[in-house]
Amino acid sequence: MIRVAVAGYAGRMGSAVVDAVTTADDMEVVCGIDPHGTESAGTFPVFASVAEALDAVDADVLVDFTQPSVVAGNLAMALPAGVDCVVGTTGLSNETLAQLAADAAPGTCLFYAPNFTTGAVLMMEFAKAAAPYFPEAEVIEFHHCNKKDAPSGTAVRTAQLIAEARSPRVSEAPGRETEMPGAEGARGALVDGVPVHAVRSMGYVASQEVIFGSLGQTLTIRHDSWDRNSYMPGVLLGIRSVGEREGLIVGLESFMG
Amino acid sequence: MIRVAVAGYAGRMGSAVVDAVTTADDMEVVCGIDPHGTESAGTFPVFASVAEALDAVDADVLVDFTQPSVVAGNLAMALPAGVDCVVGTTGLSNETLAQLAADAAPGTCLFYAPNFTTGAVLMMEFAKAAAPYFPEAEVIEFHHCNKKDAPSGTAVRTAQLIAEARSPRVSEAPGRETEMPGAEGARGALVDGVPVHAVRSMGYVASQEVIFGSLGQTLTIRHDSWDRNSYMPGVLLGIRSVGEREGLIVGLESFMG
Amino acid sequence: MIRVAVAGYAGRMGSAVVDAVTTADDMEVVCGIDPHGTESAGTFPVFASVAEALDAVDADVLVDFTQPSVVAGNLAMALPAGVDCVVGTTGLSNETLAQLAADAAPGTCLFYAPNFTTGAVLMMEFAKAAAPYFPEAEVIEFHHCNKKDAPSGTAVRTAQLIAEARSPRVSEAPGRETEMPGAEGARGALVDGVPVHAVRSMGYVASQEVIFGSLGQTLTIRHDSWDRNSYMPGVLLGIRSVGEREGLIVGLESFMG
Amino acid sequence: MIRVAVAGYAGRMGSAVVDAVTTADDMEVVCGIDPHGTESAGTFPVFASVAEALDAVDADVLVDFTQPSVVAGNLAMALPAGVDCVVGTTGLSNETLAQLAADAAPGTCLFYAPNFTTGAVLMMEFAKAAAPYFPEAEVIEFHHCNKKDAPSGTAVRTAQLIAEARSPRVSEAPGRETEMPGAEGARGALVDGVPVHAVRSMGYVASQEVIFGSLGQTLTIRHDSWDRNSYMPGVLLGIRSVGEREGLIVGLESFMG
């Protein structure tokens, strides 16, 4: 039984983590951490800080979905104490992550992932693997109207991975120069030479399609998600994987295949 | 049995028409027409002009997939003689078509269609019908790398049909202003307010997707084609339909539903 | 301003109706009806029965998303009083609906729809319209694992509509006889001659794809939904449409295009 | 410059190989082999047997797309002579392949692949890689009406690969027991526990979709092909890869990533 402490247990992501850990057979929530209140949620004790929590309970893993302002302090308490950390909170620089990992007790792992959705991570891994075999590649992402920037960070990252992995041979796909007058943008945004198209509609949550083509064939990899619960299998995978690893590990793909 | 004369019978489209008419149970090729040679193809006589053909054989319908320079002359012979015409040759103005139809014998039909692919025509009809019920609509077209302009004429026409049919209520989808620096074009080309995206790959022939969205739902209409034979059901539909119609008719949708 | 009374206003669907009507510019909720309690929700009065409601407030339309056991009684009060009814509650036979409509005051409309999702209704209408032009048609539906029957009612209904609308010409698609030993079911369920396939996954809410094919082309119509809010545009369309209609009307398609 | 001999050079696949090799910058056709005639195709000599060919020209690689009755003899000549072989001809047992490879000169490679389409091979590799992370997986294959069996060999193989790779945890997807009376087959064919659905239409050549699902997310991998040229990048990859390998190698995936 993996003993899990959940920092930010009462937040949107934290409470989903609590539910997922509670439901899993091989792990349990041993405490929640919340500086704003230590009222117990009923099934586990709650502490105001990681320090207090580690004094009181025995935890194997700290899961942190909190705020940029508090995550570094949490990790600085847990890692030297030999508690593996699974972190989804963004905002830490690579340097800070490396420094925190360097201060960890031997055998302790700091795992950070910008994206815990297994399917999205696999989509990017597959795009990287397919890129050398197809001259043409384009990315289409589909998001809800409330998304304020285009294209999405995942689409940009996917295009960059494709650009790094593909053969230097130039694709034969025509570009912006073929756009008809008044139809600028038809060929999308070029991200490192890969066209990226962004579709917006109230009918989507978050989807992405990567299309590879060569003569007479098309390979399409698509990911659709519409629920933050889609993060949870990745969080559980992180919790199960850190026990056997050490040092700083970045990206869920490190634990996949 | 509908008696069909085929102008341009030896060309790429014409020979496909000959095959399709020959295969159909309810029609037959009674002659081919080709100014460059009158050698018989074996199963039907060939004439150098429509005039000669109509003198020699009895035809119900003339199918014309020829050249802009000859089509008007062909129709000017056939229509006054009471022969219905099914025309896929482009280049005739609306005025010329109307004049040719005006000179037709009573009960004779001049049918012209810019696109004979049943699925593409239905895609546009359905897009028009769906537009009033969805705030968001975008068009993605997929073509082979050898296509020299973007977006395709069908995509532009589809966007225009959507713009005409949709409610004046402004879509909530964010536009070009949300494109990140260096990612101009991500939100596509705006055609009458409808974003249109063009994907190019050696892996496609001609495909198009129209995506409609409202809260929590998406309706997608997609057409794929990779063979000029996909024109033939539309040509046969035209041949079967002109007998019961009169005057100028434009667009395959006139005979569909 | 259309004045709307909402029976079952506190239920799952009813409260979504209240939200949608409140948000719309051209209508308002004038009362809720709930036999289990008449505590006001704050912005409108609540009555224990339709009779009491109609005594107290002036309503143009009654929306009923209640139970099979109460809907008939509600309609029997509202229709003779000249209140148009928009009904999503299932369980009323065609005979009962016809009888209720016959007792309505002149100029009053009883509108019942088994499905208020605009996209799903259009998918079926488009399938019906496309069927005559394609020899092959198949239906694939995708639902969450908790769906207890296969195929879905919408898929069966879609297949029946296709079967009624298509030409009697037999499709050339091979059937169950081509299934390899041990792979029975590969060609799906035959519903009136149309193959229907059901996919189940925790990754879906409710999606369906209708695929039409002829030589060298494919026309695909797909609907995805993952939120009961996708019903609401259809309910508002019903509310806006009943005022100009009379008698029994069944199916949202009656008000679309 | 890789020197390539093409057995069956005049056949459907062989002539496509000749075109592809000729077009590539880093290889050339040094001879064709055809027992039925040795008339030169103009740009390279033709021999009646592999033995005669190897006597006359210096070849690095023999590509064999011939018949089950002749392939073993061809390989038995080429491999002991130190010529690497790239084989797409089916019908050789694993035992025969192993024996032929055992008789090869040192440093010589016998490469056999049942499928040379890069995209189809990647689809299967990706399905294998994704399987451990998703409780639900289903396969849908789409082929032309002239396909005489269902499901396709590729679909069956994909399902087997998923079954081997996935966790033993039972999927929550309901099965055949949820099929409604008269709708047997809706849930597809079960291949090692993975539902497989086969769609048939004149509108397809060969496509396949693998759908993985977990709570709130779907990962879809799709491959479409409509031209035998889609085999050629895989054949060229084989020709380029055998020089650095030795012994029997089966499957294009051996050379991919």
TrEMBL record, chains A, B, C, D:
Annotated Dihydrodipicolinate reductase N-terminal domain residues: 2-116
UniProt binding sites for NAD(+): 8-13, 34, 88-90, 113-116
Binding-site residues, (S)-2,3,4,5-tetrahydrodipicolinate: 144, 153-154
Protein origin, superkingdom: Bacteria
Keywords in alphabetical order: Amino-acid biosynthesis, Cytoplasm, Diaminopimelate biosynthesis, Lysine biosynthesis, NAD, NADP, Oxidoreductase
Xref: SUPFAM superfamilies: Glyceraldehyde-3-phosphate dehydrogenase-like, C-terminal domain, NAD(P)-binding Rossmann-fold domains
Catalytic activity reported: (S)-2,3,4,5-tetrahydrodipicolinate + NADP(+) + H2O = (2S,4S)-4-hydroxy-2,3,4,5-tetrahydrodipicolinate + NADPH + H(+); (S)-2,3,4,5-tetrahydrodipicolinate + NAD(+) + H2O = (2S,4S)-4-hydroxy-2,3,4,5-tetrahydrodipicolinate + NADH + H(+)
PROSITE patterns, alphabetized: DAPB (PS01298)
Annotated catalytic residues: 143, 147
GO MF, one example: 4-hydroxy-tetrahydrodipicolinate reductase
Domain Dihydrodipicolinate reductase C-terminal stretches: 119-254
Family note: Belongs to the DapB family.
PANTHER family xref list: 4-HYDROXY-TETRAHYDRODIPICOLINATE REDUCTASE 1, CHLOROPLASTIC-RELATED, DIHYDRODIPICOLINATE REDUCTASE
Name listed for the protein in its UniProt record: 4-hydroxy-tetrahydrodipicolinate reductase
Source organism of the structure: Adlercreutzia wanghongyangiae
Lineage, opening ranks: Bacteria, Bacillati, Actinomycetota, Coriobacteriia, Eggerthellales
